[in-house]
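Lecture notes, part 5. Sequence design as translation. It can be helpful to think of inverse folding as translation between two languages: the language of shapes and the language of residues. The source text, in structure tokens, appears below.
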């Protein structure tokens, strides 16, 4: 098989790029090692920044998002038994975010690729990029007992943190930066009415908590837990009891509880790999960078990668202009590091660190007090939360 762009990874990043390029007449293939059902079974964040929502509409995949997604013009920070609202609309000149589950977004992208006759190959085993530093890179994968080959002009590695793409870059070229936090998030999905129409980020001495939602009948809640905890350590009742302890009394009293649909623990880490291009292979999304979920930047950082790649590839094929491809890594990383800074700051501001000395605790409290008393600080938070311009 010969295509112009070979994409490793059938998550939202790879599918979105494939769909956008298809609409510009650029031929792609997506290789995904798991089944479609497996990919759609992953529970992920669902806060989409303004630019991501626009990209979905440009990909002609935004109809259901616009119909079923919820526009949020603010969120709450709970602390010391009270909650303060961050007015995104006010502090960003009218911008907002869209709450729409990543599973649904991915389903929309799959449906669009299927409708367009796009080439998405599932259960592709042992995917390997070859000759990525040449003008004739190619991909191989195994299907049953056969090894198949795909020749392409460019390879996009959108195959996540554990994927093969980043590992294909020589060790003497790749630089990796990582910070591992001493806790994780225990998340629970329940078929219950959300406790709040907008997200609540709760800072508490027992640990951070987050009240989120997927829809008006589907709630997603999180509590900070030690890395040594397992899902089996937490019954549904124990989770609800601990969540209530970390929320202001008025919020806890309004919490509707119910059986969990899904429960999982996600460790928190920050990670960046540089460069995001080697030869004719480009990294995108979690293959190149990960952030703690506190600032809702993970999926949105991936979207900015796709925005830059999409425009760079269109310029290459339609105008013969390679400036976008040549500058991709530097441009993408500039925005990635800003997302890293914001996610680190939100995580540091709101979580309880087990090794924090009293001085650090007072600084954390002072940082929060300053934020809530300063229009300039609130504007900075809001600007980053709705997404910096591409």
């Amino acid at each position: 098989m010969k295509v112009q762009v070979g994409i490793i990874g059938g998550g939202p990043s790879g599918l979105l790029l494939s769909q956008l390029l298809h609409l510009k007449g650029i031929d792609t293939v997506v290789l995904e090692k798991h089944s479609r059902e497996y990919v759609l079974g992953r529970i992920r964040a669902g806060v989409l920044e303004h630019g991501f929502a626009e990209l979905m509409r440009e990909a002609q995949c935004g109809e259901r998002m616009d119909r079923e997604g919820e526009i949020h013009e603010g969120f709450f920070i709970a602390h010391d038994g009270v909650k303060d609202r961050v007015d995104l609309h006010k502090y960003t000149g009218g911008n907002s975010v869209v709450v729409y589950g990543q599973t649904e977004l991915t389903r929309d992208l799959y449906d669009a690729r299927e409708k367009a006759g796009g080439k998405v190959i599932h259960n592709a085993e042992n995917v390997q990029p070859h000759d990525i530093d040449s003008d004739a890179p190619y991909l191989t994968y195994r299907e049953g007992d056969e090894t198949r080959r795909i020749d392409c002009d460019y390879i996009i590695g959108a195959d996540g943190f554990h994927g093969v793409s980043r590992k294909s870059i020589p060790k003497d070229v790749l630089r990796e930066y990582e910070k591992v936090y001493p806790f994780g998030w225990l998340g629970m999905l329940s078929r219950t009415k959300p406790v709040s129409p907008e997200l609540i980020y709760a800072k508490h001495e027992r640990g951070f908590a987050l009240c989120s939602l997927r829809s008006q009948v589907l709630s997603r809640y999180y509590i900070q837990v030690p890395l040594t905890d397992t899902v089996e350590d937490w019954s549904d009742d124990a989770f609800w009891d601990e969540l209530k302890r970390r929320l202001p009394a008025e919020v806890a009293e309004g919490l509707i509880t119910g059986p969990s649909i899904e429960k999982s623990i996600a460790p928190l880490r920050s990670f960046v790999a540089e460069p995001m291009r080697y030869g004719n292979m480009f990294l995108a999304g979690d293959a190149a960078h990960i952030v703690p979920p506190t600032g809702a930047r993970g999926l949105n950082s991936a979207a900015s990668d796709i925005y830059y790649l999409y425009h760079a590839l269109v310029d290459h094929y339609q105008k013969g202009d390679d400036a976008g491809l040549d500058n991709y890594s530097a441009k993408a990383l500039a925005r990635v590091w800003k997302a890293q800074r914001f996610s680190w700051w939100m995580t540091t501001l709101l979580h309880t660190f087990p090794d924090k000395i009293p001085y650090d605790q007072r600084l954390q409290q002072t940082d929060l007090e300053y934020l809530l008393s300063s229009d300039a600080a609130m504007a900075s938070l809001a600007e980053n939360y709705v997404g910096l311009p591409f």
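The translated text above is only one of many valid answers, since several sequences can fold into similar shapes. The longest strand covers residues 175-190.
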